[in-house]
Amino acid sequence: MTALPPLPQERRLLTPIPGPKSQELQARRLAAVAGGVGSVLPVFTARAGGGIIEDVDGNRLIDFGSGIAVTSVGASAEAVVRRASAQLAAFTHTCFMVTPYEGYVEVAEALAELTPGDHAKKSALFNSGAEAVENAVKIARAYTKQQAVVVFDHGYHGRTNLTMALTAKNMPYKHGFGPFAPEVYRVPVAYGYRWPTGADNAGPEAAAQAIDQISKQVGAENVAAIIIEPVLGEGGFIEPAKGFLPAVRQFAADNGIVFVADEIQSGFCRTGQWFACEDEGIVPDLITTAKGIAGGLPLAAVTGRAEIMDAAHAGGLGGTYGGNPVACAGALGSIETMKELDLNARAKHIESVMKARLSAMAEKYEVIGDIRGRGAMIAIELVKDRTTKEPHPEATAALAKACHQEGLVVLTCGTYGNVLRFLPPLVIGEDLLNEGLDIIEQAFTSV
Ligand SMILES: *Cc1c(COP(=O)(O)O)cnc(C)c1O
Q1: Which residues line ligand 1 (CB under 6 A)?
Q2: Most C-beta atoms within 10 A of its C-beta, which of 67, 71, 384, 399?
C-alpha cells in the first residue's frame, strides 16, 4: 500500500464553492441518487483528514462538522487506517454469528471499561445508531416484560420505523412515513433557554412534569425504557437544565424502568468526557453508541448491565454485518487515538476557545440568542428578537451558506431550524479552529 502524502492543514479556495467538477458530479448525482437523500453542501470529497476536507476541484475546506460528529479523530486517523487496513487484508467478514473474531470481543471489553459505572457490563454491536437504539428497546422489553417506551421533546433517535416514532421532529424525519410504532410516549425536556419560567426553574419543573405524565398517562409499571440524549443533538444541542437528568434517572431506578442514555452523538470524547452523562454523575442501565466510535467506519453498540443485556434469548439479537471486523478494527484505532492524544482534554480546550469567541460575537450581534453545548459540541441559537425569542431559521440558513462559500463546513439543527452547530474534529489544529471562527464572524457581518 502506498501512503498518500500528508493532507496540508490549510484552507484553500481555488474555485467558487461548489467548483466545476463538483457541479458535474452533482448533475450525475441528481440523475442517479434518490432525491430523499440530501447533502448539506454539494461539494464532492476527494480526501479528508485532520480538520480539512479537500474537494475534487482542489479546494480545501475547514471541517466544523466531522461528518455529523463521526470523525472525532479525523477522517483518516493513522491508527484507524493502520488497524482497519490490516483487518481488510486478513478478512473482511465472517459474520460474528457464524464464526466469531477477537476484534468484536475487544470492542465489547473497551466499551465495558469506558462507559460509566463499575457494574458487570456486556455489549452487542450493530451497524448504525438507529439499529442500536432499536436493540436497546428490544433488550429493555425482554428484561422488564413491559412495552411502553418514554422519549422526550426535541429528541432524535434515528430514521427506521421504531426510531422515527422515538424522534420528535416531523419534518424532515417522519413526514409522510407513518404509521409509526406504538407504545411510544413523549414527555417534556428541560430546555433551559425556552422554558417559560426561566432556565433556573427548568430542571426541577420539567422533571416534575415528565414524571407526572409518565405516572398518570402511561403508568410507571408499564414502562420498559426511558431513552434520552444527555445532550440533545439534532433537536438543537440542548443540555437538559441542571437536575433534570438525575431526577429522571432516579425515577427510572425507583420504578424498575431501564434508563437508556443515547450517547450516539454526545459520546466518545465529543463533550470532553467519554460520555456526556458523566458530567452529572449519571450511570445509565444501557448506553447506545455509534458515530464517533470508529473513526468513520460504520459501527454501533448497546452496552449495559450484564443482567439486562443477557435478558434477550440466544439468537434474538444480531445481524449479518453487526460488529463487522473492519469496523471493529477502526473502533480500536479510534479509541487508541482518543487515549493517546487525550481528546477529552482537547474537546474541553475547543469549548473554551469557541465559547470565548462566540460570546464576543453575541455582544455585537443581537441575532445570537443563546450559546450552549459542551466540549466540541457547541451551538448558537438564532432569534429575531432576544425578548420574544422568535426563532430565526432564515438567518441560520444564510449564515451557514455564507460560511460554506468561504470554505467552512458548518451544520444546522434544532426543532425550529434556527441552531448553527459546530462539531469540529477533536484533532483540528489551533489555526484552523480560529480561522473557522473568523469565517463565522465575517458571516455575521455580511448577512
Ligand atoms: C445520529 C443519531 C442517531 C442515529 O444514528 P444513525 O447511525 O444515523 O442511524 C441516533 N441517536 C442520536 C442521538 C443520533 O445523533
Answers
A1: 128-130, 133, 156-158, 229, 233, 262, 264-265, 290-291
A2: 71
State the residue for C-alpha cell 482542489: 58
Neighbours of 381 (CB within 10 A): 26
Give the three cell numbers for residue 413.
439543527
Ligand 1 midpoint to CA 264 (Å) = 6
Testing ligand 1's pocket by substitution, the residue of 133, 263, 270, 299 carrying the most ligand atoms inside 8 A of its CB is 133
pLDDT digits (tens, 9 = 90+) for 10-59: 999 999 999 999 999 999 999 999 999 999 999 999 999 999 999 999 99
Determine the atom of ligand 1 nearest the C-alpha atom of 298. Answer: 7
Could you tell me which of 442, 439, 444, 432 has the C-alpha nearest to residue 63? Answer: 432
The kind and range of the H/E element at 148 are strand 148-152
Q: Please tell me whether residue 301 adopts helix, strand or coil conformation.
A: strand
Three-state DSSP class for residue 261:
strand
The span from the CA of 16 to the CA of 58, in Å, is 11
Cα distances (Å, whole numbers) of residue 14 to 44, 50, 61, 405: 14, 20, 11, 12
Q: What type of residue sits at position 159? A: R
Long-range Cβ contact pairs of 38-43 (< 8 A, separation 24 or more): 38/172, 40/65, 40/400, 40/404, 40/409, 40/411, 41/17, 41/404, 41/409, 42/18, 43/17, 43/18, 43/19
Q: Is 164 in contact with 179 (CB distance < 8 Å)?
A: no
pLDDT (tens digit per residue) in 303-341: 999 999 999 999 999 999 999 999 999 999 999 999 999
Proportion of the chain above pLDDT 90, given as a percent: 99
pLDDT number for residue 1: 55
pTM, two decimal places: 0.98
All 3 cell numbers of residue 183? 407504545
Burial of 89 (0-12, 13-18, 19+ CB in 10 A): exposed
SS3 content of the chain, % helix, strand, coil (to 5): 40, 15, 40
Q: Ligand 1: distance of its center to the CA of 118 in Å?
A: 26
Q: Please name each of the domains of the chain with its CATH number.
A: 20-63+342-446 (3.90.1150.10), 80-340 (3.40.640.10)
